[in-house]
């Protein structure tokens, strides 16, 4: 039975350490996202995060929670907009544009009528 509690305590300590690392990385990321805070204050926060880790992390999360949330939401929205723009760019043309391009190839003689019909059918099926 003693081995179980040692294992349980070990797992709890590992979980607490991983949770602390997650909070620490979130704080450091937020420090770099905050463009209103001067570099000296950022340096002071980072020094305190390594000198007095748990206390300074708790103070940072309590004091700067609202700004941290707003910066995180803004970064997520910016990422979503970038992904949307990338998807629209990669998706390229609409079905009508693809059929028009295939018709242009047919008119130029680059493809024959059967290839045009196959491309048209494939585009319509998408």
Automatic annotation (TrEMBL):
Organism: Rhodococcus globerulus
Full protein name: SHOCT domain-containing protein
Domain of life: Bacteria
Residue stretches in coiled coil: none
Transmembrane segments: 7-28, 40-63
Bilayer topology annotation: Multi-pass membrane protein
Cardiolipin synthase N-terminal domain mapped to chain residues: 19-64
Protein keywords: Cell membrane, Membrane, Transmembrane, Transmembrane helix
Compartment(s): Cell membrane
InterPro entries associated with the record: CLS_N
Main location: membrane
């Amino acid at each position: 039975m003693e081995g179980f509690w040692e294992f349980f305590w070990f797992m709890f300590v590992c979980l607490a350490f991983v949770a602390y690392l997650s909070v620490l990385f979130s704080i450091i990321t937020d420090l770099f996202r905050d463009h209103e805070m001067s570099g000296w204050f950022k340096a002071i926060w980072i020094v305190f995060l390594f000198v007095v880790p748990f206390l300074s992390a708790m103070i940072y999360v309590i004091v700067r929670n609202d700004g941290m949330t707003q910066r995180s939401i803004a970064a997520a929205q910016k990422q979503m907009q970038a992904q949307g723009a990338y998807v629209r760019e990669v998706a390229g043309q609409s079905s009508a544009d693809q059929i028009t391009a295939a018709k242009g190839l047919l008119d130029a003689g680059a493809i024959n009528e059967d290839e045009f019909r196959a491309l048209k059918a494939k585009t319509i099926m998408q």
